[in-house]
Amino acid sequence: MFPLGTALLPGEPLPLRIFEPRYRQMLADCLGRAEKSDAAGYFGVVLIARGHEVGGGDVRHQVGTFARIDNVLRQADGRAALTCTGAGRFRVTEWLPDDPYPRAIIEELAEPVIEPADHPKILELRDRLGAFVAEVAETRPEAAPAGLPDFEVDEVVEHGLFAWTTRLPIGPADRQRLLECETVADQVTVLDDVVDGLTAMIRFGR
């Protein structure tokens, strides 16, 4: 397990630098298991509720995301640079001692399924997101998201609404709320609140 100051979402890229001895050991163990099973290495990422990334002693959220290790660049002194991608979600059922590194017993969580009744809500959310980006571009171009992203319906097929969320400038708490949603309808509710907050910030110049 790798506690971080942000919530990793499925489908989202995650660059990491590994320098603490405990996480060097975790990386070696993950890669060792991957070599034995001829599969990609994985570890869990959870958002820190209180505390810091370095040194331990933090309080962690229970719902997190698997990080799939895509590339590793190791240095001679043992440090490493990783590129990872968020995969499926999990819930921690029991935290184990942080020796030699954070570990937990988990259960995998099914991804929210887009039901026919969700389609109108998703289309409405897409229109709201497009209107928000257009308003940013018109009223505060210096604050516009890089590249002025589009929000296409076919992008939600693989990773659901997480595909749109990764393009929005939202904080860890809202990302965690979205990660913990059990239904697409709940995710839409969270993202509606997010859009309301972002729109208010733009309009009031915060």
From TrEMBL:
Species per Swiss-Prot/TrEMBL record: Gordonia prachuapensis
SUPFAM superfamilies reported in the protein's UniProt record: PUA domain-like
Domain Lon N-terminal: 1-199
Protein name as it appears in the record: LON peptidase substrate-binding domain-containing protein
Pfam families reported in the protein's UniProt record: LON_substr_bdg (PF02190)
Record-linked PANTHER family: ATP-DEPENDENT PROTEASE LA (LON) DOMAIN PROTEIN (PTHR46732:SF8)
